[in-house]
Design goal:
Elements: H1 8-15, E1 21-23, E2 29-35, E3 40-44, H2 50-55, E4 62-69, E5 74-79, E6 90-93, E7 96-108, E8 117-122, E9 124-129, E10 134-140, E11 143-149, E12 165-170, E13 175-178, E14 183-188, E15 194-200
Amino acid sequence: MKKKHSSLDDALRESMTPEACQISGGRGLFMEVNDTSTGLIWMTTSTVTLPDYRNLAIEPPLTKTGVGYAAMDRAAFLSSPGSNQGEILHREIGGWDWINVAKPMEIIPPENEGGPLRISVQKAHVIGFEANRSVSILRLPHGDYVELVGKSTDDVKLTLPRGGALEKIDLRNPWVVTLPSPTDAYFWLGKTMRSFQGPVTLP
């Protein structure tokens, strides 16, 4: 039986390693870039604004990947997929501190018009949700996927993968999820980014 924690920070700490990088900013806005020379995705370690993303000046091989609101209350990365030693890789881009958070392995186009991209992503990602909040879940025939990016406000407008359904679960206790690696990630790209990732075991 899993141990019940009185606080999310205590629960998250139990899942972290000494090398882990905890991301500050909660459900704030974060931006990512892709280094096309390596295929590695880099994310800011602190929150940004939309003007910050628009004004970010980068040069090849870097390209802007996107900007989106975190759906979870806490997040940490245990290692960087670009590292051979299991450490977190940092770099400075445009005056911001970034870490290597992911490496896409396979990108599958939407199976239906308006549907999400499906991306297999290598990463070591732990996320946490506070008690007494609702969390959106994408339920698919092959598993359950938890919200990671974006807000539920416009979920009714999403075109879901075949066989998919959205539902909300109400948390009585803090919930910490260690995502699998590779992670199966569904992304709706557009004016507002939305993503569900997993599969995960529901509390």
